[in-house]
Every structure is written in C-alpha cells, then in structure tokens.
Amino acid sequence: MKHLFRARDERGATSVEYGLMVACIAIAIIGGVTIFGLGVNGLFASIPPNL
C-alpha cells in the first residue's frame, strides 16, 4: 500500500523545480549586472576627456 502513495509524492519534484527557477533567476541577475556594469564603465570612461 505504501508504494501506491509513494508515486504521488511530488515534494522532490517541486524542490527541483524551485532550484531550477532560482538558478535561472541568478543567471539572469548576473548577466544583467555584467551588461549594466560594462555600460556604466564605458560612461565613466568617457567623462574625463570631456572635462
């Protein structure tokens, strides 16, 4: 009887899904900060010659 209920237990699958979501969000944040950082760096690099 325990084997019937064991197939319906989706706690592990939910944990894996949350882990994948967190990983995707982390990758998006790291990519965004990298791109934004390069843009800001270029902006500040162009200021001194104009002064």
From TrEMBL:
The keyword Transmembrane applies. The chain crosses the membrane at residues 20-44. Keywords: Membrane, Transmembrane, Transmembrane helix. Pfam families: Flp_Fap (PF04964). This is Flp family type IVb pilin. It comes from Nocardioides zhouii. The lineage of its organism: Bacteria, Bacillati, Actinomycetota, Actinomycetes, Propionibacteriales.
